[in-house]
């Protein structure tokens, strides 16, 4: 069973983690032996997100154990993580231990700050590339991509793009048929009205 952790923190953008949560927990619902999905934070106290939603992490980083996939959301709260050696070390350690690192929106800034995007193609929120590129070395910007799979690191563009990235994760780690099953289950067939 794959263990998928979704990070939550003060100022995290709600849809950045709730969108992937919906996709990944639908996968868990349809195939309970395939995945375990949980929220992880500094502790298990309530976290106030960017638009005011309060959430409770299921576990703390210290108690999370081995993680197969990490989804790191964006939002204004990511800026407090930049330059934080504790965050950098945690992310580098996870990647070194084989965790598939996924980000949504400005979560990519935190990955870049930890050196995880050096020499890789990446995307982020459309207006955040000027912040992203100086944080790493030789990051190849992909501003027109909804998500970029660079092997052990996957970055998604802003907010709703995290749903596409999470469906990609289901297809990559499960199967394309399972991803289609999940997409139908959550009735995700975007046709924007404008």
Describe this structure in words.
The protein has 194 residues and is α/β, with parallel strands linked by helices. The protein has a single domain (2-185), classed as Rossmann fold. Helix content is 32%, strand content 20%. The chain contains six helices and eleven strands. The protein has helices at 14-30, 85-96, 107-113, 129-132, 161-173, 176-185; strands at 2-7, 35-41, 47-48, 54-55, 59-60, 69-72, 100-104, 121-122, 140-141, 147-149, 153-156. A seven-stranded mixed sheet has the order 5-2-1-6-7-11-10, sandwiched between helices. The protein has a two-stranded antiparallel ribbon with strand order 3-4. Helix 1 (14-30) crosses helix 6 (176-185) and helix 5 (161-173) packs across helix 6. The radius of gyration is 15 Å and the shape is globular. The chain starts with a strand and ends in a 9-residue tail after the last helix. The model has no long low-confidence stretch (mean pLDDT 97).
Summary keywords:
alpha/beta, 11 strands, 32% helix, 194 residues, Rossmann fold, two-stranded antiparallel ribbon, seven-stranded mixed beta sheet, single chain, 6 helices, globular
| CATH architecture call | 3-Layer(aba) Sandwich
CATH topology value: Rossmann fold
> How many helix segments?
6
Report the average pLDDT across residues.
Answer: 97
Query: Could you name the CATH class?
Result: Alpha Beta
User: How many domains in all?
Assistant: 1
Number of strands: 11
Q: How many strands, which pairing sense, and closed or not: the largest β-sheet?
A: 7 strands, mixed
CATH homology superfamily name: Class I glutamine amidotransferase (GATase) domain
